[in-house]
Amino acid sequence: MKKIVFTICLAVICLAFTTKSNAQISVGVRGGIAMPLGDIAKDYPTGLGMGMGFGGGVIGKFALNQTISLGLAYDFQSFKSGDIEIASGVAKFNYKWTIMPIVGQIDYYFAKEGFRPYAGLEAGLYMFKFTIPAQDIVYNGVTIGKSQEVSTTDSKIGFAPRVGFNYSLSKALDLNVEAKYTYVLTDKPVYTSLGFNVGILYNLGK
Predict the structure, then answer these.
(1) In 3-state terms, what secondary structure has residue 16?
(2) How many Å from the N-terminal Cα to the C-terminal Cα in the chain?
(3) pTM over 0.85
């Protein structure tokens, strides 16, 4: 699966740089939220589920023409966490989730300038990290020691249909706003979420 993702990302880069020389390249930064859905959200905050996620990332877009663009994006998302209770009245441990998606994108634009709504799809590798940080061990309200940090990581394939728009702020800058539904091929509980991103794109060569 990881080889497939690498091949897709490499194809995006190669196709972008083999198109005609007037293809527009944009780079940018963005921030956003992710709202987990289904069982992965129901377990929060007393199981191993996820609360609201916050994060940001970097994006690069390669306009093949005025209606189609390819892109690459990397994000870091940190999710509100809960507590794991080892045994009733014995000890609780705080935990946290982070997700780092690396995805390739394709978008279709419905307008050529100014306000440009689009629909698109992204797919790639989603790297999950689950961490129980080092913290005090509390027994019946009394601190009896300190735990060591424990973490585990896993990588899964996922995809997200997206809708959004670019709005021209100047010749070189665009405002980018989008919403997306993410589905990752994880073991149960399956990870799904609704996301909302806002970013700024800088158009190179303008």
Answers:
(1) helix
(2) 38
(3) no
Give tens-digit pLDDT for 170-182. Answer: 989 999 999 999 9
**Eight-state DSSP code of residue 147:** P
Give the per-residue pLDDT at 2. Answer: 47
**Strand spans (E) along the chain:** 24-37, 53-63, 68-79, 83-87, 91-94, 96-109, 115-132, 136-139, 142-146, 150-168, 173-184, 191-203
Q: Is 199 helix (H, G, I), strand (E, B) or coil?
A: strand
Distance, in Å, from the CA atom of 70 to the CA atom of 16, rounded to the nearest integer, reads: 7
> Would you say 158 and 101 are in contact if contact means Cβ atoms under 8 Å apart?
yes
Band of pLDDT at residue 21, cut at 50, 70 and 90: very low
C-alpha span between 48 and 71 (Å, rounded): 33
Query: What is the token pair recorded at 198?
Result: 């806002």
Distance between CA atoms of residues 101 and 76, nearest Å: 7
Tens digit of each residue's pLDDT (9 = 90 or more) over 34-82: 999 988 887 766 667 788 999 999 999 999 998 999 999 999 999 987 7
What tokens appear for 83 in the block? 């507590």
Q: Which domains occur in the chain, in start order?
A: 2-203 (2.40.160.20)
At 137, which helix (H) or strand (E)?
strand 136-139
